[in-house]
Amino acid sequence: MNGAIVIIGLNHSTASVKVRERITFPGDEQGALTKMFAALPGVDEVVILSTCNRAEIMAVTDGSIETRDRIIRRMASIHKLEASELLGYLYVYTNVEAVEHLFSVTASLDSMVLGEPQILGQVKGAYRKASDAKTTGPILNRMLHRSFFTAKRVRTETDIGASAVSVACVAIDLAKKILGDLIDKWILLVGAGEMAELAARLLSNQVRKPLTVVNRTFENACCLAAQFSGQAMEIEHLQTALAQADVVVTSTSSCEPVVRADQMQKVMKLRKNRPIFFVDIAIPRDVAVDVNDIDNVYVYNIDDLQSVAAENLEDRRGEAKKAGVIIEEEVTKFIHWVDTLESTPTIISFLDKLESIRTREISRLNGKLSHLSTEQREAIEILTKAMINKIAHEPITFLKKNSVGGKSKEYLDVTQRLFCLENCPEVENSGDKVCKP
Question: How large is the average pLDDT for residues 370-384?
Fold first, then answer.
């Protein structure tokens, strides 16, 4: 394999929300952080995937342990941590395992909610940012596109998405478990992004009272509220909105809590201590940890959703097995493509060598062919090119077929020496280059 594919990261299985909210890469719209990783010695290509449940660095490297450690140290330094603090939460996948992991992530087999559809869009968004930052190359470009194709196959050929639920859906299920029927409850959405829209869509048919949307960008709050005949409020009026709400679903991209304990103390006085339930599905968390210590304030974060998601898992286990077979097929195809990259330079040199011989010999005969018409000259061109292609076909097929395995380097070396290709010692002999024995 040309270079090593490496994925280093953490997710909902390896780290709690308390840890995950410290290791995020939000707001990298200009790709500054991505470029920072790409600039590390030994790193050729980079994509950063950062969601509420995972933070991963995908890279093509020189395969050395030193380069892997540089990536981990850079992850730690960005978040003002020591590398040793991170190691217990990280997974490191290389080559085949890395490809399997990405394909499983994109197909939503590695999600907290198995089969949820949002992750595909998140991976595409991560790839788009890296592509705009020009930190991807042939291997990650191909790998990401094949992961999208694989995810589409899984959706088409299995029913894993038939009973799938999103994180937002699980959040609503949790609220219903706690409060029962939501029809007479006041619902407040803090945030106006994709998760808030999903929550609004799920709630719109379950509540009688208009949804309230609060967002830092008021225009976005208005847009979301209008879709569901709700009402929008500016972030400055969050305290007023909280005083009215029974259930609050938060999903902003803020790096700091938007709901604080001192703020909630005032809100609870306005509410006359009436209970309020928060479902915080943001990473980092929107609701400060100590808010949960206030009487009659109940806060559930994304880790609390896992038990609810587990109840819905059984129906999709069989479909996940089918999806696993598809992923295995696609991983095999991709790894074979990567392995054939090793033979590509030799094949190109071989074809170039044959073509140079063909053109040189025709050039030598130019004087003897001067009486030929243009059509006859074109016929000779076509004939000689066809001969070259037929001569090259079997050696090229052999090299591609045997580009994987223990003897691949030996076959490439023999081909380079046999045809005196790149890096082969040469001597002049009657005007032609031949390999030195």
Answer: 86
